[in-house]
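User: Hi! I have a protein structure encoded as tokens and I'd like to know what sequence might fold into it. I'm fairly new to this, so please keep things simple.
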């Protein structure tokens, strides 16, 4: 791989890392909001929807981490 493509991939990695940080912050906010709900609401449909959203955000974060690792491997 030439240096131009390597630089482009490193820029993409930086973008993914920025997005990961933002996504992580949003996941943390949603988790905090869920944790601050009364137990009765946590067990309700609303709580279940929030838990599902948190789980989906965690899955997205894992996917971004995997993408970063794959791109880094491609630049070696």
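Assistant: Happy to help. Inverse folding works backwards from shape to sequence: for each of the 76 positions I chose a residue that suits the local structure. Here it is:
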């Amino acid at each position: 791989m030439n240096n131009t493509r390597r630089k482009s991939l490193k820029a993409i990695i930086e973008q993914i890392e920025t997005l990961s940080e933002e996504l992580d912050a949003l996941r943390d906010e949603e988790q905090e909001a869920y944790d601050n709900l009364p137990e009765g609401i946590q067990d309700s449909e609303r709580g279940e929807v929030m838990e599902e959203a948190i789980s989906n955000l965690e899955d997205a974060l894992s996917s971004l981490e995997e993408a970063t690792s794959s791109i880094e491997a491609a630049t070696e």
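A useful reference point when you look it over: The chain has a mean pLDDT of 96. Feel free to ask if any position seems puzzling.
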